[in-house]
Amino acid sequence: MALLTPDDLADMTNALIKNDCLIQELTTYSLDGLCRKVYGTAPGNEMIAIVPVTAGNGIIGSFSESLLFTVKHFGMNGFITENTDVAGYYEAVTAGADIVLMADDLAYIAHNLRNGKIAHNQVCTGRIYAEILCHAADFADGDIDNDNIDNDENALLVIGLGKVGTPALETFLNEKQNIYVFDVDSKRVDEIVLHYPVKKYDPKDGKTFSRIFEATPCADTISESVLRENSVVSTPGIPCGISGELIEKYSVRVVLEPLGIGTLSMLYAVFDFRVA
Ligand code: NAI
Ligand code: 0TF
Question: Which of 90, 157, 211, 240 is 20 to 30 A from residue 135's alpha carbon, by CA?
Answer without folding.
Answer: 240
